[in-house]
Amino acid sequence: MATTMTASFPAIRLRRTRAAAWSRRLHAETVLTPADLIWPLFVTVGQGVEEPIASLPGVSRWSLDRLVERGREAAALGIPCVALFPNTPPGLRTDDGREALNPDNLMCRAVRALKDAVPDLGILTDVALDPYTSHGHDGLVDAAGYVLNDATAAVLVGQALVQAEAGADIVAPSDMMDGRIGQIRGALEAGGHHNVQIMAYAAKYASAFYGPFRDAVGSRGLLKGDKKTYQMDAANAEEALREVALDLAEGADSVMVKPGLPYLDIVRRVRDAFRVPTFAYQVSGEYAMIEAAVAAGAGERDALVLETLMAFKRAGCAGVLTYHAPLAARLLGA
Asked: How far apart are CA 119 and CA 124, in angstroms?
């Protein structure tokens, strides 16, 4: 005799746990909090300066006094760390990027100002020469315009040391030179900076999403050629795993994938392969796309921001560098 359907069909209803907001919170597999955010901040010279960046609506360059205000804001919002990027004056940019080694350069002054004002706020500093070079590359170049690996790495070591001595908590080499993590780690240890972390930009791709950032640090228009001989090819995933493995073996404490959303597959593969703290940078072009969508009426900012940040966490990120950090922190703390 054929059985009849009972009123209980289907027995398993996945919608039961979605029916109420309290239940959705209870069953959430991924949790996003302000503690998952790093806020990138751009530093400029002067006093009382806020310079809006046209290609990054809502983002500005800040003089040191205004930067300190942003540091206090981050701490109040529960954001544990800020990332600093300097807009070096044109007169201090040279072919050899020597201003990167100046212990009183804009970056080092910014670190000291923040540490004096907000000592418990984590400070991440960018280790690369593009904010300091007149040609816009992340390293030293030869007569043919090729970026020199070993000569650049030697300068990066000195740059990381002056940042550590200024009080940086995390130095983050973003240059993609081979071997620089091991050299920086060795120099930090020799200099007594045992607790200064290295967050390696381990899988940084030669991406079309970096344009607004170059506006922010004043390097757009300076770059001669492109960065494809040292940043990764967007076609490659296995190579990213090799890059991460090398940086970890050389002493990186954490690794980064950059850009973010277009490379979530890389984030997941890195996290699964190595089980180490893995970060992603939601880069300037990604931020600008969200803001453009909002301006066009194609989406609602709060929802877009939280959904994209949740995607990073779901993919395996320990944290995310994002220009939307203060907005997200306010939304998450509400």
From this structure: 13
